[in-house]
Amino acid sequence: MEQLAIFGGEPVRKTPISYGHQYIDDADIEAVANVLRSDALTCGPKVTELEKRLCEVTGANYVVMVSNGTAALHLAAMAAGITKGDEVIVTPLTFAASANCILYCGGTPVFADVKRDTYNIDPESIRSHITEKTKAVVAVDFTGQAVELDEIRQICKEHNLMLIEDAAHAIGTQYKNKKVGSIADFTTFSFHPVKTVTAGEGGAIATNDEKLYHRLLRLRSHGITRNPDEMVHPTDAMWYNEQVELGYNYRMTDFQAALLLSQLDKLDRFIERRTQIVKRYNEAFAECPELVLQREIPESKTARHLYVIQLNPELLTCTRREFFDALYAENVHVQVHYLPVYWHSYYEKLGYPKGLCPNAEYLYEHVMSIPLFYSMTDEDVESVITAIKKVLAYYRR
Ligand SMILES: *Cc1c(COP(=O)(O)O)cnc(C)c1O
């Protein structure tokens, strides 16, 4: 049997490949440079143009650009009315920001478990965690696959809860032929470089509600308004603006907006290539019983952000740690998504015990995300498959 690189053998890949990477072309660079040569550097015409474009991409009536995906979640949570004493139900299998936004508002995150096969929040678990104090649900489209939006929306309707969909992974995904962004009360996006399209840093909130939209605009810029209808002391003085609540500076710059507009020109291409790679992985791993693959639900036409493999410990002699390290040594730089949020020491100190969500905890211990990004060549894809099969063969029971 071929010696693993971790034990001194030759690595499958000569150069490392990471689990995600941005793709920037000359058009992107030109778009940014053009803004830098213009008059408006921040929150100007490019941001407005981008908001219109994202309305088309997401099917939402309104989109507000902000400085990053975390700011988008924060403002969505504020506009959802989350405040001290409120409970908000959230998945633990996510980046911490999905729950932190609840803490920012003084609310209490309540973790509902995920389904063991789809990795998305389980509507039944949401139902079982509802109390008098529950105000909202934060649902994450993990890896880009849409959560069970019909079921979750029904629960929210019955209990008068706001639904925030964290779609940081899911730009371009459709649920039952409706675009993600047009369905929940708020849908948030992130444009960090590792996501499907990037602004360097950037975020967006999509909503169909005009009132909430105006609130989001105001919160993005200090809680200050120029609209006399929103003022306590309205005047027609041209210079007058008024802070009517406590907001933030979460504005996006125009050069970031220009970058994202240029990236969105490539979104269909990006998704098509990612879909091809996913198909190739699915095919290659179908013959590996040691790997469990994420179940795809037919309701979601998924624009895939992550490809997660799950180890079947009954058929392997290694731990997840050993498998991860072996792949790393083969120059396949995998990553783990995610540490259950309440396992972070900060949440532990807040009093969340281990064992709250057994499925999320099990998944955390057995999954890793393998390389998936637009600019991977077919050779890259095959090398990842070869490396995984090599490590599987070594540790097969
Ligand atoms: C990336 C991400 C965020 C945070 O987005 P930033 O733009 O990095 O602030 C939030 N939720 C999920 C699920 C993410 O993947």
UniProtKB/TrEMBL annotation:
<dbReference type="Pfam" id="PF01041">
    <property type="entry name" value="DegT_DnrJ_EryC1"/>
</dbReference>
<dbReference type="GO" id="GO:0000271">
    <property type="term" value="P:polysaccharide biosynthetic process"/>
</dbReference>
<keyword id="KW-0808">Transferase</keyword>
<dbReference type="InterPro" id="IPR000653">
    <property type="entry name" value="DegT/StrS_aminotransferase"/>
</dbReference>
<protein>
    <submittedName>
        <fullName>UDP-4-amino-4, 6-dideoxy-N-acetyl-beta-L-altrosamine transaminase</fullName>
        <ecNumber>2.6.1.92</ecNumber>
    </submittedName>
</protein>
<dbReference type="InterPro" id="IPR020026">
    <property type="entry name" value="PseC"/>
</dbReference>
<dbReference type="InterPro" id="IPR015421">
    <property type="entry name" value="PyrdxlP-dep_Trfase_major"/>
</dbReference>
<dbReference type="InterPro" id="IPR015424">
    <property type="entry name" value="PyrdxlP-dep_Trfase"/>
</dbReference>
<feature type="active site" description="Proton acceptor">
    <location>
        <position position="195"/>
    </location>
</feature>
<dbReference type="GO" id="GO:0030170">
    <property type="term" value="F:pyridoxal phosphate binding"/>
</dbReference>
<keyword id="KW-0663">Pyridoxal phosphate</keyword>
<dbReference type="GO" id="GO:0008483">
    <property type="term" value="F:transaminase activity"/>
</dbReference>
<feature type="modified residue" description="N6-(pyridoxal phosphate)lysine">
    <location>
        <position position="195"/>
    </location>
</feature>
<dbReference type="InterPro" id="IPR015422">
    <property type="entry name" value="PyrdxlP-dep_Trfase_small"/>
</dbReference>
<keyword id="KW-0032">Aminotransferase</keyword>
<comment type="similarity">
    <text>Belongs to the DegT/DnrJ/EryC1 family.</text>
</comment>
